[in-house]
Amino acid sequence: ALDKLFPRKTLGFFPSPIHKLERLSAMLGVEVWAKRDDVSSGLAFGGNKIRKLEWLVADALAKGCDTLVSIGNIQSNHTRQVCAAAAAVGMKSYTVQETWLEWDDPVYDKVGNILLTRIMGGNPIMGGYGYSTTEKDTWARALEEVRAKGGKPYAIPAGASDHPLGGLGYANFADEVAMQEQQLGVFFDNIVVATCTGSTQAGMVVGFAAQEKRRRVIGIDTADDEAMTRRAVTKIANDTSELIASKGGKRVIVRDADIEIIPDYSGPAYGLPSEQTIAAIRTAAEMEAMLTDPVYEGKSIDGLIDMAKKGHFKGQRVLYAHLGGAPALNAYYKAFEDPEN
Ligand code: PLP
Model pTM? Predict the structure, then answer.
């Protein structure tokens, strides 16, 4: 329905597939399904940013911009998807690739997402330090550089999150889930989703709150900073609700209780897996051939498995939102080295 209120440039293959995770469900004694936004796009392995960028790219094109400028970690899935979206619509991209964590690996800045960005003819600018969703000098300089060369840049913040249109993609996701539920004849009582820069969860909170039947959206923090993540999700949810209402869409009230952030699976730090993260990644891979990464989805699948084992979802159905991230796995081979093999 949001298509009618805001321009959207199709970049993905939507609706993304939903399927039951049969073996995991049997092991956990809980019905677990997955919605595969990791396979929702033909653009360079896709991921959750494709869904968000459909609305930002439409805006960029309408404004006559020719270059997307964004920022992220060296192994950012987001900057890779910005570069992919730019390539697919014939724009340029500049992406500031910062160091947000210390992962001692000689190929960390060579393989995975950064490699794909280079192959797609992006312009990665290596430099900058520390995770932050606030505006950075490096990003401002990249925007200036594009202007100095006569280009017209379109600024996209980290994760395409703290942007007026950042929450639309996942607000619309809620409608897509409701449509698929009707087709499948099921209802998902719980959505489990990795959360970091916030607009994925925030969009879902707004989108699902607009529906008649209530359900839980459970954000598994991956930023390893619960307070920061909560601030980000709350702000974007409120802004998104306001924006949709301003165009005649349904106004929803975002209550504090609607924003559930689980901090227990994010350690030891952003981008660094715990032993439990690695074990959960192996479980999803061995039981479902579903690949998850040590930065985001490894942590959310860990949360889902652990919470299910502790009885949180008894008698309920769970939908795992798989947001992508597997391209970073190459940069983490060390986490899976087995001396026996
Ligand atoms: N999963 C993957 C694979 C991601 O790349 C991201 C991006 O940060 C997330 C989850 C978290 O999404 P968000 O930043 O919108 O909270």
Answer: 0.97
Please give the number of the atom of ligand 1 that sits closest to the Cα of 325: 3
Distances, alpha carbon 189 to alpha carbons 89, 129, 167, 213, in Å = 37, 39, 22, 9
Q: Which two tokens stand for residue 31?
A: 């019905």
Measured between alpha carbons, how far is 189 from 263 in angstroms, rounded to an integer? 21
Asked if residues 82 and 116 have their Cβ atoms less than 8 Å apart, the reply is no
CA 337, CA 332: separation in Å to the nearest integer? 9
CA 100 from chain center: how many Å? 17
Among residues 336, 339, 328, 335, the alpha carbon closest in space to that of 116 is found at 328
Structure tokens at 340: 């026996």
What are 49's two structure tokens?
A: 């940013």
Query: What's at 187, amino acid-wise?
Result: F
**Active site includes 76?**
yes
Helices (H) and strands (E) in the chain, counts: 10, 10
- Per the rule left: phi > 0, alpha: psi between -120 and 50, beta: everything else, 259 is beta
Give the sign of the dihedral formed by CA 219, CA 223, CA 229, CA 232.
negative
CA–centroid distance, 266 to ligand 1, in Å, is 13
Ligand 1 near 323 CB (within 6 A): yes
* Active-site residue, from 25, 40, 41, 76: 76
Q: How far is CA 194 from CA 40, 75, 93, 324, in A?
A: 17, 17, 26, 10
- Torsion sign across C-alpha atoms 66, 72, 78, 79: positive
Query: Residue 19: which H helix or E strand, with range?
Result: strand 18-20
Going by the DSSP 8-state scheme, the letter that residue 17 receives in this structure is P
pLDDT along the chain (341 residues), means of 10: 95 98 98 97 96 98 98 96 98 95 92 98 89 73 95 96 97 98 98 98 98 97 98 98 97 96 97 98 98 98 98 98 97 89 67
Sign (positive/negative) of CA torsion 188, 189, 195, 201?
positive
